[in-house]
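Comment thread on ticket #2218

A.B. wrote:
> Attaching the input chain for the structure job we discussed in standup.
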Amino acid sequence: MRFPSLDLLAARALAVVRRFPWTLAAGAAAATFAIVASDMHGRAADPWGRAVFVALLGLPATIALTLTAEARGWSRAARLALPALALAALALFWRSWAGPEIKHEAIRFAQLAAVLHLAVAFLPFLGTFLAGESLAFWQYNRRLFLGFLRAALFSAVLFVGVAIALGALDHLFGVKIESETYLRIWFVVAFLGNTWIFLAAVPEDLAALRDERDYPRALKVFSQYILTPLAFTYLVILLAYLVKLVLGAEWPSGWIGWLVTSVAVTGLLGFLLVHPLRSDPEEGWIRTYARWLFVGLVPAALMLLVAFWKRILPYGLTEPRVLGVALGLWLLAIALRFALRPATGIRVIPVTLALLLAVTLYGPLSLTRISLASQRDRFARMLAAQDAREASAALRFLVEHRAGREIASVVGPKMPAIAWDSVGRIWGRSDSVAKLIMAQTGGRYVAGYPSGVNEGWFYVEADRRAPTPVAGFAWLVRVSERDAVRPGAPGKPGAPEPPRAGGPGAGPDSVRIAGRDTIRVAFDTTSGVARIRAGRDTFAFDLRAAATRLDFDSLAYRSTVPAATLTLDTAATSGRRAQLRLEQLSGAQAAGTVRVRAWSGVVLVGE
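C.D. wrote:
> Ran it. Output below, let me know if you need it in another format.
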């Protein structure tokens, strides 16, 4: 085996630059944006993080357009202009896209990424779609598939090699290598180096692939002895489960979606990989495999649709459910098509899938538009039926989508003014906005994560935006359960602990000085009483009294409550007054019993 010389490698690298300049520019931009975002924190990193995702979309977009222009024989100017226009369109997408932190926006990104990657697979051949199947189409995608695997392997080896070299310099020669350096190198290798290596494997003359008969033996072994047995195993399990459902008159479990997805991915991938061998008389197993694969996919797709229908009836449509139904219908159509017409060309699979995802991306048939209409109707219906929990769930969905128009169509003139820009980006903001809207309708709001989950744990914070009067007190000091020895146990064994309250304390049984008073804190988790001793006076605060003021039905696992709710007053026998203003309180409640686990705040003591 002859290895290419360095001069040849350099020439190939330069040829990639000339052929795919915009693709490499997108990869370099993604690496740069990722490095900048990794050095930022909080909201400052948001635009750079979104830019990374959008730049990554530029990779398949520019590859698809460049190859399409080459296949059509367009001028070099057109080959450069089309990808540039695609990058400009993605820049507009960046301005309107809210980012992957919001669930439905993450789904939208995944859809768009899938459409663009599928476009790379078929767009250069779309002009000959009606002219019959072409071996060139399979050879082209086989080259891309193996090129992707090779690029991933080479990139991983390159990064590990560089990381080991830098580690050696750091540990053996004392050259200081910052930890951020490794992350930055990974971004460059993954987004630019990996792209460069992959592009070198993209074939240039697509028409010449029609005469190529090369079929890697490793690919046949992988398909015949790994993918095919897996697909048939999944099919047998699915069919056995179908028999169980019919005999037991049961509905399919929601988990069935994972199994159907597994059989569809492994089965279709195996079918596509061995497609050129279907006409080989020595490979009869392939025809048998293809026939029974698509026959088995028909009941699998039907079970998937029934499972989604069972979920949609009581809870309405959401983006994942709409997408699941759409993909289930697509899988059913593909299975019927190939089961009835085995000679159907394989290009129909990526083309129809990309078309389906593109149609449901934006517009009246988009996943979000259909879901909002369904949840709006569900909100109105549950509100009229006075079903607080279901109405709250539908309203929360609409609030998280900032669907002010849909909510106003149900609430009417009672709709309060909402700062929609903060919804979905501030923790707990969706719950507080939904609660405000529900209050205007006269209904009761039930939080999305009620205190009943996680074995009853709750965690609340005081709203600190209101002014805090201090008249009548001599001093204040910050205290928490960490400053005290707790006689009681923290909770039942094995129970998940909520976030601990308070900042750094002075340690168990700590002693502090405030004015002429020596301050000591004691806390009994069994009784929920915190005792704060100031000089000769002891002030007892029943923290469970503050906890019982909470509305657990509408309380989220982590909520903000009015400061007055967490304020406790007491007095000593000497007449001195003290007040404990809790800032954080956590614990568990069940069957009407409340147990305080952790707390923090400030205690104010008068003279």
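A.B. wrote:
> Thanks. Noting for the ticket: The chain has a mean pLDDT of 85.
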